[in-house]
From TrEMBL:
Residues 2-144 form a coiled coil. It comes from the Eukaryota. One of its GO terms (cellular component) is I band. The lineage of its organism: Eukaryota, Metazoa, Chordata, Craniata, Vertebrata. Keywords: Coiled coil. PANTHER family: GDOWN1, TUFTELIN. InterPro entries: Tuftelin_GRINL1A/MYZAP/CCD68 (IPR051375). This is TUFT1 protein.
Length: 165
């Protein structure tokens, strides 16, 4: 009877040791998952801040593009007016010196305005490329954030499962 009691006591002690080791392993796993959740959450917050900053930059660039487009339209209108006036002066007969001077001045203005229009067109194209790239980056960032959200949710579920176990 005493030997059976000793055997049972040894089995009980071994079972308690196994249970204690399993409990510590579960605690380590839970702690590890909680640490992963915290790291992923912090990375997610950083990514969200980056997305917000990029959205602000996109809005600023779109405003700038609108302003550049307005400036371009204004310059095109001015060039059209100058060309019309130049055509009128050329159509008029006579060799008046004032008309020749005005004609030369208008030709210079037209050339300068065309150069400005060309420069603005180049700037518009460049800014539009930047906006498209930033929008693509935003979409990529949002995809990464969604992936991290689902990873966090999965880790939280694991932690809950392990804690329940």
């Amino acid at each position: 009877l005493q030997e059976t009691a000793r055997r049972l006591l040894r089995r009980l002690q071994e079972a308690e040791k196994r249970h204690e080791m399993e409990r510590k392993a579960f605690e380590r796993t839970v702690a590890q998952y909680q640490e992963e959740v915290e790291q992923t959450s912090s990375a997610l917050r950083r990514a969200q801040r980056d997305v917000e900053q990029k959205e602000l930059q996109v809005e600023e660039l779109q405003t700038l593009l609108g302003d550049l487009e307005e400036e371009r339209q204004r310059l095109v209108a001015a060039a059209r007016d100058s060309e019309a006036e130049l055509a009128q002066l050329r159509a008029m007969e006579g060799d008046k010196l004032a008309q020749q001077d005005r004609s030369a001045q208008l030709e210079k203005e037209v050339a300068m305005l065309r150069e400005k229009i060309h420069h603005l067109d180049d700037m518009l194209k460049s800014q539009q490329r930047k906006v498209r790239q930033m929008i693509e980056q935003l979409q990529n960032s949002k995809t990464v954030i969604q992936g991290k959200d689902s990873m966090i949710q999965e880790l939280k579920e694991r932690v809950s499962y392990l804690e329940a176990e």
